[in-house]
Amino acid sequence: MDLEGLLGSLGAGGAVSAAGALSLPAESYGNDAQLEMMWAKKAYDHAEIYFNLISSVDPKFLKLTKVDDQIYTEFKKIFGDMNINVLNPEDLKSEEAKQKWRPFCLQFDGIVEDYNYGTLLRLDCQKDYTEENTIFATRIQFFAVEISRNREGYNNAVYESTSKSKNQKQS
Fold first, then answer.
1. The whole model's pTM is what?
2. Contact 72/52 with Cβ under 8 angstroms?
3. Among the listed residues 11, 9, 6, 39, the one whose alpha carbon sits nearest the alpha carbon of residue 24
4. What is the separation, in whole angstroms, between the first and last Cα of the chain?
């Protein structure tokens, strides 16, 4: 899917209008394919930036929000038994999971900006974002899982792999 080409076809005025439209609440829209593409592009850009970040900075030093400690504590309290190394999509999307996630997410309304925006989340944290390794989640779910992965060392594999590649290229 060529998101860059689609956005480029909007022209400068269209892109500015699109940026303004993306700040409106979701209830303001119908099923607009062009708008869905812009949301997908925004989610993809976020994922790419995040992956580049954990590839270049030791993840244990990353702070993703002002309330990382609160997110981590609440996540571990409610989802402490969840395998965050390799996520099972059912742990995010099943009806039972939604019953647990809904109150978790809502507690961050007004605390975490755009807490309910759509975001891409890697299923296996040792792999890059690919179609097979990516699930659509809310931003607060992304933060909860990725803060936990960073603190518990699961994202180290990405950082170490990139560091080894850089060292080999320099040698």
1. 0.77
2. no
3. 39
4. 37
Model confidence at 35, pLDDT cuts 50, 70, 90, reads confident
The helix/strand/coil state of 94 is coil
Cross-strand partners of 121: 135
Rounded-to-integer distance, Cα 95 and Cα 125, Å: 24
- What CA–CA distance (Å, rounded) separates 16 from 50? 24
Cα–Cα distance for residue pair 148/76, rounded to 1 Å? 8
The C-alpha atoms of residue 154 and residue 148 are separated, in whole angstroms, by 8
Nearest to 3, CA basis, from 46, 44, 51: 44
Cα–Cα nearest to 43, from 114, 105, 150, 117: 117
Spatial separation of the C-alpha atoms in residues 91 and 100, rounded to whole Å: 10
- The answer to whether residue 40 scores a pLDDT higher than 90 is no
What distance in Å separates the CA atoms of residue 91 and residue 5, rounded to the nearest whole number?
A: 35
CATH node for 11-170: 1.10.3560.10
Is 162 in contact with 61 (CB distance < 8 Å)? no
* Residue with the larger pLDDT of the pair 32 and 81: 81
What contacts 56, CB < 8 A, 6 or more positions away? 159, 162
